[in-house]
Design goal:
Radius of gyration of chain B: 21 Å
Oligomer: heterodimer
Structural class of chain A: alpha/beta
Helix content of chain B: 25-40%
Strand content of chain A: 15-25%
Radius of gyration of chain A: 22 Å
CATH superfamily of the largest domain in chain A: P-loop containing nucleotide triphosphate hydrolases
CATH architecture of the largest domain in chain A: 3-Layer(aba) Sandwich
Distance between the termini of chain A: 34 Å
Order of helices and strands of chain B: EEEHEEHEHHHHHEHEHEEHHHEE
Distance between the termini of chain B: 37 Å
Largest sheet of chain A: 8 strands, mixed
CATH class of the largest domain in chain A: Alpha Beta
Structural class of chain B: alpha/beta
Helix content of chain A: 25-40%
Shape of chain B: globular
Order of helices and strands of chain A: EHEEHEEHEHHHHEHEHEEHHHEE
Strand order of the largest sheet of chain A: 6-7-8-3-9-10-12-11
Number of helices of chain A: 12
Number of strands of chain A: 12
Shape of chain A: globular
Number of helices of chain B: 12
CATH topology of the largest domain in chain A: Rossmann fold
Strand order of the largest sheet of chain B: 6-7-8-3-9-10-12-11
Chain lengths: ~375, ~350
Amino acid sequence: MTPAQHGDPVTTDQQSGAVTPARQGDVLLRVRDVRTYFRDRQGIIARLSRRHTGQVQAVDGVSFDVVRGETLGLVGESGSGKSTLARTILGLIPATSGSVTLDGREVLTLRRRQWRPVRRRMQMIFQDPHSSLSPRFRVSFLLNEPYVVHHVPQQERSTVDELLEMVGLSDEQADKYPHELSGGQARRVSIARALALHPDLLLADEPTAGLDVSAAASILNLMKDLARRLGLTYVLITHDLNVVGYCADRIAVMYVGQLVELGPAELILGRPKHPYTHALLSCAPVPDPHLNQGHLDNVLGGEIPSPHDPPSGCRFHPRCAYADGLCEEQVPELEELGGGELVACHHWRHIDFDDAAAVLQPQARSGTT
Amino acid sequence: MTGPPVSIEGPVTVPLLRVEDLEVVYYTEAGALPALSDVSFEVGRGEIVGVVGESGCGKSTLGAALLRLLPPNGALAGGHVFVEGRDVAGLSRGELRSLRGRTVSMVFQDPLTSLNPTFTIGQQMIAAQRAHARDHESKSELRRRVAEALTRVGIPDAAQRIDSHPHEFSGGMRQRVMIAIALLHEPSLLIADEITSALDVTLEAQILKLLAEINQTHGTAILLISHNLGVIAEVCKRVVVMYAGRTVEEGDVMSIFDDPLHPYTRALLAAVPSREQRGVVLAAIPGRVPSLLALPVGCKFADRCNHARDVCREREPAFLAHGERRIRCFIYDDGLARADRPVATPGTVAP
């Protein structure tokens, strides 16, 4: 648990027992035991008067592989560390420890200048296109910018029209400023910008957040189509389970900086093992009034704890209906179940979500509702 | 402007909220924008009714218009809003003040902009109480009532949290505070405008559960405005679908989700991604909601509709009863000659 010195990432191969290359295939991105801690920036009075942990464990020991050509969905509530993890993988936030390899090459130890060729291969689509596209430049400039930054020779560049066409926009959009675009169009421009450098891996942070159903559907269609045409690999970060259910090949579930379950989408959605995954799935609103009968009866209570002071043992235990003394004391290991499934829960074997009475004594839920 | 009477069979009972041919116009430099026109629906006592549509369809304008909370350049240009049988347009300032908060109250999407960051939750709630207090009550009595209201919406340690400032609450808790404020005077109708849109699924489910409980225990009717069809399906009994400032379909939630009739309702439902649709190309609706500055002449959805005929581009269909529902589409307009009527082809868009 003690973090390595900053800037001294550790490659933990002894950890690989707890990690799956889920499918046989060519691993593009390998993440091992990545930790991202932030220093506590509270003032001196707060430090003296309160219990002071000194750091925020935003990402705390996450390991997974991404196979070339797949879409890995990363889900969890806000505050679970999804976006921090993505930014750490891209080197936008320094990792406290751990290892990230792209095609077998370690990237976390790279110096600033060495990052550049790596970033050409890993691009991010940021959550809010209107704040990630500079309001002062026209779309044509914004689409050319990656080439200028990376000194791409003229003959290797795609034209603005080609990029616009790739994301289904007309060439009239080239002369517009970001504020003249609708939410869906701005999202398409960010995707085009990310694609300009022909990356292998795209980290998409909530690509459909804030869009209407119809605009969201066309963005998802576009992403799928691009994956097929360009052989892209996605890490899709979202809190919308309908979206991961539709797109992802595998799903990783995060809770307060840690992975709690990972596996093929059909297994995670069809037969979740971790109580948190189950709770998330049963909360997701489904546009079918028949399926919602009694749906709200077992809503997950409480709120996600702060990574500033995470609960002892299993971090989910204060909200878990199946938690007991063991969960309070001991951190569950990420256990391999075969079939590419991993789960971190002491009791998953004994939990039957359809028959809540048959489990260990469910603790009264602390907190509200 | 007087609209056609809404057909209700049997003895006329006064519904809690009745909106008839409502028109709202925003006056801007670019001209008068018809934000709402020909909007009609009802909310009965104790009923939960959803309002759904894409952004720009006038959902929030509708919520604001019901309480005459439109911005200064907006005006009710026609039609009526009856709350318990009284026309809101004719109310004096004093009457309006007692309507807001006491009979109808509203909760908005972003609680941080509705709460004053410099006052404690308790101070703000006491002020809200005093606004409608009948006689002078002691401060300790008011504090006790505020704590009670906070406990009712599921805020733990309410007696202590009363002296916290808004920033000390999480997003979900702030939304609970807003609901507590809205319920202080036990209104008959709560208008909830996208109140779960900024929340995680887990908190969203908690807030929806809270709304359902409030509805059951206090009999408070709720008008739930949301772009999320899942949210609507979860708690509403009836639903009103809006498009380009108009009501296009209205009816029972079960029947509308099972068998959407208006092409727009169908398209909306078909665009929602789900596990079952893996590998299928999602049916995104082509085009965009038309700009209020350049609304097409006939049916406002005609340009995006795959059933549109000539008649759809010439005249606007009326909002007509069709069985238990009301629909604005020529497909279901029996007054139109069969030859002119567009044909619904069920199955092109799976519900």
